[in-house]
Amino acid sequence: MTTPYIHRVCYSDTDAAGFVYHGRYLEIFERSRAEWLAQKNLSPSKLIAQFGILLPVRDLKMDFHKPGRLDDILYVDQAIERRSRAQLSIRQTARRSIEGSTTDLELIVSALINIVCIDTITLKPKAFPDFLFLPE
């Protein structure tokens, strides 16, 4: 998971106070993980049809560090923190450019997301295919 996913905060991402609504970060992080799959020429539907697996979120913990705002450009990164046979812990972060700097980013939100690999028919845990973790 190397290339950051870039998301521009639009009006529909914000709440009445003008901040990114907390639930929106889940959607942004999901899009980032979908992009990671796309970079590997995969998609959730391809994983289902060709490999018989689903990758649902089992649980997550989010920390909100600073409010995101309308027109912010968010850089979303992810890193695998722990991998077992059928579970993956991914640390995802959203950062934005610090005003006046072209290189520094400030942390907006971070999450530890636990994803499980399950069989599409039995809905029981199934080992992650190794090809998901090969370098791009």
Structural account:
It is a single chain. The chain has 136 residues and is α+β, with helices and mostly antiparallel strands. It has one domain (5-131): Thiol Ester Dehydrase, Chain A (Roll). The protein is 18% helix and 37% strand. It contains two helices and seven strands; from the N terminus they run βααββββββ. Strands 1-4-5-6-3 form a five-stranded antiparallel β-sheet, with helices on one face. The protein is elongated. The termini are close together. The model has no long low-confidence stretch (mean pLDDT 92).
Per CATH, the class reads Alpha Beta
Q: Main β-sheet: number of strands, strand sense, barrel status?
A: 5 strands, antiparallel
**Total of domains:** 1
Morphology call: elongated
Radius of gyration: 16 Å
**Helix and strand succession?**
EHHEEEEEE
Report strand %: 35-45%
Structural class of the secondary elements?
alpha+beta
Oligomerization status of the protein chains = single chain
CATH superfamily: Hotdog Thioesterase
**Percent helix range:** 10-25%
Strand line-up of the largest beta sheet: 1-4-5-6-3
- Residue stretches low in confidence (pLDDT < 50, at least 5 long) are none
**Could you tell me the number of beta strands?**
7
| CATH fold-level assignment | Thiol Ester Dehydrase, Chain A
Mean pLDDT: 92
CATH architecture: Roll
- Number of separate helices: 2
Distance linking N and C termini: 9 Å
